[in-house]
Design goal:
alpha/beta; 15 strands; Beta-Lactamase; five-stranded parallel beta sheet; rod-shaped; 45% helix; 461 residues; Rossmann fold; 21% strand; five-stranded antiparallel beta sheet; single chain
């Protein structure tokens, strides 16, 4: 076991030798005996003993009290004063050096042992305390440097009073630190309503031991406003009244950008929402980023249905058109140009709508694929018109073909200028006219034939 080293500062040699003998008998090591204050300061710095027994009334220019004070400031070695007799004033001055005890001269072995052991224990405890304080000071210094150079402000508040604030929070809000510390946080809010809102929401959450996050407008010293993102947490959940730490981040640029984007989005959404066509944007993972309200007018399904079911658009397709649509979707994601397709959809009421579809891939500024943007137009009436046109063209073509046939079957008599019917020509003409008009044939007899066939009857008339 390593012996504790006790240095003696005593100008009476006999007393010094007696003390050394007693110390050695008690198991201590005595590395040095000095007789003056100057030598005590020098030797203590050189040997760094565990304890010093210092005569309070040394002869010479430096008293024991002065030597003890110098050693305490430079080496922080525990000191026990030796005194045979001292007045009140001397003892008062000795107290300022914060000694670890007093020993009368002479002292019994028991008194010597107990005083030294208590002083050594207190010295070790004091050394640990000083080490912890030094570490704390270093940590606090490092933390202050970090906090002062963060892009966010940090403050510690008790009952909404600012106990401590980082340099960065003062810079953010335009205040000198001395104008911030000790003030109510109301100083930073543009109005009481904002102040009370954070109090109701934020401090209530902190009091429950939760971490609060939120955003609030803040007022700078010059009266201008900024937006801050707030994070608050109590230092002791079991005792919220002990205070809370708050982090403030200036998010004004982001809020300005969000507002600009919102205004832009509102403008373009208004245009898209009121367009006649059915507009949409499908993300890379196939979920719906945007679906215009026109989808309900055309497809009979509201926007919410498409947002809840990303596969609904394909599900509406006519079964005969799904393969072509799948091929189209696969092809359009691998190119940078738009592509068109026509297909049919089935509405909930069972009706069929024809759709003219066009879409193209969307890429961001870094060239990353950001989904597909498409437009669906209802062309059902056009399709019906096209089908009717095709039907009429077909009928006309058939009619023209029959007219050509008819023109080849009209033999006219060169003498009487009447259509011959010796091979059923007239019956063919009658059949064609009946099929292509509302004319009806009465099959009555003409005057010439009446005279020819019934001449006697007509002559009597």
């Amino acid at each position: 076991m390593v012996k504790k080293r006790v240095m003696l500062v005593e100008d009476e040699s006999v007393t010094a030798m007696d003390l050394k003998t007693n110390l050695v008998q008690l198991g201590y090591e005595v590395p040095a005996i000095v007789a003056s204050g100057e030598d005590a300061v020098h030797t203590a710095a050189e040997l760094r003993p565990d304890l010093i027994l210092m005569d309070i009334t040394l002869a010479g220019r430096m008293t024991g009290i002065e030597a003890a004070d110098a050693i305490r400031k430079n080496q922080a070695i525990p000191i026990v004063f030796l005194t045979a007799h001292a007045d009140t004033e001397t003892i008062g001055r000795a107290k300022t050096t914060e000694p670890f005890g007093y020993l009368p001269k002479p002292s019994s072995m028991d008194t010597l042992l107990s005083t030294i052991e208590v002083a050594l224990y207190k010295g070790e405890a004091d050394a640990r305390r000083r080490k912890a304080e030094a570490l704390l000071r270093r940590t606090m210094t490092e933390q202050k440097i970090i906090l002062d150079n963060l892009g966010v402000g940090v403050l510690f508040a008790i009952n909404r009073k600012i106990v401590w604030a980082s340099k960065s929070i003062a810079t953010m809000l335009g205040y000198p630190l001395e104008e911030v510390e000790g003030r109510d946080t109301l100083l930073f809010y543009p109005d009481r309503e904002s102040y009370e809102k954070v109090g109701t929401e934020g401090y209530a959450a902190v009091a429950r031991g939760e971490v609060y996050t939120g955003e609030s407008p803040m007022k700078k010293k010059d009266g201008s406003l900024i937006w801050c993102h707030l994070v608050g947490q109590t230092v002791n959940p079991a005792a919220p009244e002990e205070g809370s730490i708050w982090i403030l981040e200036d998010v004004t640029p982001r809020k300005v950008l969000e507002e600009t984007l919102k205004q832009s989005e509102d403008k373009y959404r208004t245009v898209a929402d009121f367009t006649h066509d059915w507009e949409f944007w499908i993300a890379p993972d196939e979920h719906i980023r945007y679906m215009s309200p026109s989808c309900e007018k055309i497809a009979g399904r509201p926007v919410a249905d498409f947002e809840q079911d990303a596969a609904l658009l394909r599900g509406l397709l006519h079964p005969d058109d799904r393969a072509a649509y799948d091929t189209h979707r696969h092809r359009v994601t691998g190119q940078e140009k738009s592509e068109e397709l026509e297909f049919r959809i089935l509405r909930p009421d069972g009706s069929v709508r024809w759709i003219a579809h066009v879409c193209q891939p969307v890429y961001d500024d870094q060239g990353r694929f950001n989904g597909t943007r498409g437009s669906n137009r209802d062309i059902t009436l056009r399709k019906i018109a096209e089908q009717e046109r095709e039907r009429l063209i077909t009928e006309l073509q058939e009619a023209l073909a029959k007219v050509k046939t008819l023109s080849g079957m009209l033999p006219v008599c060169a003498s009487c200028k009447k259509i011959r019917d010796d091979k059923g020509y007239w019956q063919q003409i009658e059949a064609y006219i009946s099929d292509h008009s509302e004319a009806e044939f009465s099959h009555g007899i003409c005057p010439d034939c009446a005279v020819k066939i019934y001449g006697e009857y007509y002559r009597k008339k």
